[in-house]
Automatic annotation (TrEMBL), chain A:
GO terms for molecular function: ATP binding; ATP hydrolysis activity; transmembrane transporter activity. The keyword Transcription does not apply. PANTHER family: CELL DIVISION ATP-BINDING PROTEIN FTSE, LIPOPROTEIN-RELEASING SYSTEM ATP-BINDING PROTEIN LOLD. Keywords: ATP-binding, Nucleotide-binding, Translocase, Transport. The keyword Nucleotide-binding applies. Residues 2-230 form the ABC transporter domain. This is ABC transporter ATP-binding protein. It comes from the Bacteria. SMART domains: AAA (SM00382). One of its GO terms (cellular component) is membrane protein complex. InterPro entries: AAA+_ATPase, ABC_transporter-like_ATP-bd, ABC_transporter-like_CS, MacB-like_ATP-bd, P-loop_NTPase. The lineage of its organism: Bacteria, Pseudomonadati, Bacteroidota, Cytophagia, Cytophagales.
Length: 232, 389
């Protein structure tokens, strides 16, 4: 589903060069629930950004669905992100001036297809129902709790039915109860067929995924299959 | 975007003010351009005007002396034609006008007093009827030649030849002897040049006691006639008139002066409004730059969710167009009063064209102001833009 081959990412300013990732070779298979762990600054989010085509590697190749995408134009990358990938961020990244329903609808606005305004809104409603927020559709993000915001973000990530969901510390800003709730939703999405890659600092959340990749100083230092623990 | 009422109100007011200034300047330009497209109706190249100051001469003799001057002038081989003309000769600031009526409508008309040779001297064509002839020189002949705008103002599409008109308003009391018969219709006659509105005008025969008040003459000279002839002419005519001061002017030069008088205010307004628009553009650009910079996180998010760079640019331009539309709707409510109330007696087409041009310029301005900062923001990698929030 996602393959990273010989990836290196260097951030350069006029005076400083920072190696964020080096020699990354990683394949995420369809239907997998993979977690990435490591200390702060080890390159977890950078790795997730490369998988999500939000950033380009300095060297190496990214493949999505078997197709190398490193040389893709902006418009092709945007289409891939829109159709194949859903994003969940630690800080939710909801647009405060838009209602919950409008926030969830955003990915569909960028989809070239048959969806009309009413059908887009119907799909957004269905996504919100899936995360249990159908009663908050007309609220604004400022009127929601952290857990609710993250559920809106999940609804936004799944509204376009992407094959891949990339979650960057989705429980990082939530208390443990809310975190567990979000994790359960992600597990359910994975059970329904979504491939999920999640960056986390929380060992207990990582243990609820199929596979754990550990990073240290930009390098992969561990890649292990896990016995899925459904417990909380 | 749509909850930021304060900053949006500021942008709307800024755009509204620019629209109104632009509308004013554009109206002025459109008015002048529309006038410019209407021919002035006479020739000015190789035409000279002679102005005489009869000083202490008894008025009763001026008419005869002017006739002698005309005969003398026509005796020079350099002069192809000459005509007496009232003091409101073309391209001067002098004017003579008054109301004329056909007892159904009244309009203000410029009035010119001239003679049989005016069409030949100024290259004026008679479109209908005839120019004055010897029969009009008889004391009881009361005839007029009018121009097309006067015909339209008084008769519309009805024929005007043979109809009678009089000076004054519809309700003024007058005798049948006060009426003049229209014997000819000429096209335009715009004595102040191309930028003058095509105003109604009429021509009267220079005869009887009125001849004594005519102290100007127009000449058609051969191409290449130079200042040497001008000096000889003034010297000879000085001897003939026993020292009347004579002022010789070239209509071509006078026309340039008139154009300057018409264009200088337009240019000044244009410069002032140009600076204003530049300031508004810089202001909008600054406001948008800050606003777009504040929304880099949102841009990153939208890019992550599938928006292309172009789509992001289009979104910001679209948002600015919505704000501009709010401002323009307000502006149109104000500007729309000008054609409705016929302000300054200008044609509706002047205001409507100015509104159209101003709306287009405003949309162009906000597009340019929004395009650059939004394009810049959209080209940032989504990961970097997301990090900005």
């Amino acid at each position: 589903m996602i393959a990273l081959k010989n990836i290196e990412k260097v951030y350069r300013t006029s005076t400083i060069e920072t190696l964020a990732l080096t020699n990354i070779n990683l394949t995420v298979r369809a239907g997998e629930f993979l977690s990435i762990m490591g200390p702060s600054g080890c390159g977890k989010s950078t790795l997730l950004n490369l998988m999500g085509l939000l950033d380009a590697p300095s060297t190496g190749q990214v493949e999505i669905g078997g197709q190398p995408v490193t040389q893709y134009r902006d418009v092709d990358l945007a289409r891939l992100r829109n159709q194949k990938i859903g994003f969940i961020f630690q800080s939710f990244h909801l647009i405060n001036d838009l209602s919950v329903l409008d926030n969830v609808e955003i990915p569909l606005l960028y989809r070239k297809g048959d969806e009309t305004g009413p059908s887009r809104r119907e799909l957004a409603r269905q996504a919100l129902e899936k995360v249990g927020l159908s009663n908050r559709m007309k609220h604004f993000p400022s009127q929601l709790s952290g857990g609710q915001k993250q559920r809106v973000a999940i609804a936004r990530a799944i509204v376009g039915q992407p094959a891949i969901i990339l979650a960057d510390e989705p429980t990082g800003n939530l208390d443990s109860a809310m975190g567990n709730e979000i994790m359960s939703i992600l597990q359910q999405l994975n059970a329904d067929g979504s491939t999920i890659v999640m960056v986390t600092h929380d060992e207990s959340m990582a243990k609820r995924t199929h596979r754990l990749v550990r990073l240290f100083d930009g390098a992969m230092v561990g890649d292990s299959l896990l016995m899925v623990n459904e417990g909380r | 975007m749509w909850n930021k009422k304060g900053s949006h109100l500021l942008i709307i007011v800024e755009i509204l003010a620019s629209f109104l200034v632009l509308f004013g300047v554009t109206s002025l330009i459109v008015y002048n351009l529309q006038n410019y497209r209407e021919p002035i109706g006479f020739e000015y190249k190789n035409r000279w005007s002679l102005g005489f100051d009869s000083r202490g001469e008894a008025d009763s003799t001026v008419g005869d002396i002017m006739q002698q001057i005309k005969s003398r002038v026509l005796s020079y081989p350099q002069v192809e034609a000459a005509t007496m003309f009232s003091n409101n000769i073309p391209f001067t600031m002098n004017s003579s006008n008054g109301d004329v009526t056909n007892n159904k409508a009244t309009t203000l008309a410029q009035q010119f007093r001239t003679d049989l040779d005016m069409p030949r001297t100024l290259g004026v064509s008679v479109l209908e009827g005839r120019w004055f002839d010897k029969s009009d020189e008889l004391p009881d002949a009361r005839t007029l030649v009018i121009n097309t705008p006067l015909k339209k103002a008084l008769f519309g599409d009805e024929p005007a030849l043979g109809k009678k008109i009089a000076f004054g308003g519809v309700d003024d009391k007058r005798k049948s002897a006060d009426y003049f018969t229209i014997v000819g219709i000429v096209g335009n006659f715009k004595p102040r040049g191309e930028y003058q509105e095509n105003l109604p005008g009429l021509f009267q025969m220079n005869k009887g006691p009125d001849r004594n008040y005519t102290r100007s003459m127009l000449l058609k000279v051969k191409p290449g006639t130079d200042a040497g002839f001008e000096a000889k002419l003034t010297r000879d005519l000085g001897l003939l008139t026993k020292g009347w001061p004579i002022e010789v002017s070239y209509l071509e030069n006078q026309r340039t002066n008139q154009h300057n008088i018409a264009l200088v205010p337009v240019i000044i307004f244009l410069i002032v409004s140009g600076f204003l628009l530049i300031n508004v553009a810089l202001g909008l650009f600054g406001v948008l730059n800050v606003s777009i910079a504040k929304r880099r996180g949102e841009i990153g998010l939208r890019r992550a969710l599938g928006a292309t760079e172009r789509r992001i640019s289009r979104q910001f331009v679209g948002e600015m167009w919505v704000l501009a539309t709010f401002a323009l709707v307000l502006g149109l409510l104000l500007a729309g009063q000008f054609p409705l109330l016929n302000v300054f007696n200008l044609k509706s087409s002047v205001y409507l064209t100015a509104i159209g041009v101003s709306v287009a310029v405003i949309y162009l301005l906000v597009t340019l102001c929004a395009l650059f900062p939004s394009r810049q923001a959209a080209t940032v990698q989504p990961a970097v833009a997301l990090h900005a929030e």
